[in-house]
Amino acid sequence: MQPLILLGMHRSGTSLNAKILMNTGIQMGWLLSRDSESVYFQRLNRKIFSYEGTKWGDVDLLITAMKSENFVDTQTKKILYHLFRPNLIPGMDLNISFFFGYRHWQEIKSGQPINWGWKDPRTTITYPIWLQVFPNAKFLHIIRNGVDVAISIYRRSLIQQNKIRNRLFPLDFSPETLNFEYSFRLWEKYVNFVYHFSNRIPKGNYYEIRYEDLLAHPEAILRETLNFAKISVDDHVINDACKGVNRSRLDNSQYYQAFSKEIQSLPYSTLMDRLNYTKG
Q1: In total, how many domains does the chain have?
Q2: Residues 6+ apart with CB under 8 A from 40
Q3: Model pTM score
């Protein structure tokens, strides 16, 4: 019962990827947020973040903690308890069966195989814990140009700051991301963290795709992803799964013009060079 776990910085195309994978029949959770995030695993990740008083937009303390074997081992034990503890209230599944929902859980209990996984960008920072929980999991890392990520985060933060839902769900709003360079550096931290621990993932269980390639060639990238995950799907399913991909989103020129000053002010980034990305 090993999952396909999506890694990737917020606003890097993980939602699009999750939707496409769901369209091929992969179970990504019966209860999802509007960004196609598994609410069940989202809550568990937030618990891990909360132990260091962090949230998605302020991860320095958690990154430091994740480099401690003791912290990772302690959190792994807590996660295992949450996943596989007995149900506390009949009819209210609080363990991993809550993720699958009643119908799929009954299929699993009866021995039927199921392709499953989840998407929550917070997993990008917590994944060493999940690697201990699911040692044979497949990790799919979605990467996007850091400038485009910073633009998307900054624009979303401007919209969010005055919305009432942020007062109801303060964990979803990080005022620090109203600084353009901060958002760019946050992208670097997420991606570099994946690389820092990627050697712990068994050979053949880690795969990278580019958001830009997914937009330009969705069917081909989906086939690569499914081959990596060892999931067999008919061609017509792949074609249907990719029909909703908006290839026009590759053109980000209007935002590059609007943020030209901020983009040009960004310091040199070794990560951008490593990934062969440019500022414009």
Answers
A1: 1
A2: 29, 31, 96, 98, 99, 118
A3: 0.93
Instruction: Kindly state whether residue 279 falls inside one of the protein's structural domains.
Output: no
130: in domain: yes
pLDDT tens-place values along the chain, 280 residues long: 689 999 999 999 999 999 999 999 999 999 999 899 999 999 999 999 999 999 999 999 999 999 999 999 999 999 999 998 876 554 455 789 889 887 888 888 788 889 999 999 999 999 999 999 999 999 999 999 999 999 999 988 877 766 655 455 555 778 899 999 999 999 999 999 999 999 999 999 999 999 999 999 999 999 999 999 999 999 999 999 999 999 998 998 899 999 999 999 999 999 999 999 998 7
Is residue 192 one of the residues assigned to a domain?
yes
**Domain limits for position 252:** 4-274
Helices (H), 198-278: 211-216, 218-229, 235-241, 253-258, 260-264, 270-274
Other Cβ atoms closer than 10 A to 199:
8
CA distance 236 to 135: 32
Residue 150 · residue 90 · CB < 8 Å: no
Q: Give the integer Cα–Cα distance in Å for 153 and 178.
A: 8
* CA–CA distance, 242 with 218 (Å, rounded to integer): 6
Residue 280 falls within a domain, yes or no? Answer: no
Residue among 125, 119, 122, 126 at smallest CA distance from 140: 119
Per-residue three-class SS string for 126-141: HHHHHHHHCCCCEEEE
For residue 177, the Cα-to-chain-centroid distance in whole angstroms is 18
Residue 179, both tokens: 């600084």
- Angle at the Cα of 43 from the Cα atoms of 56 and 179, rounded to 5 degrees: 15
Identify the CATH number of the domain in which residue 39 sits.
3.40.50
- What SS3 state is found at 1? coil
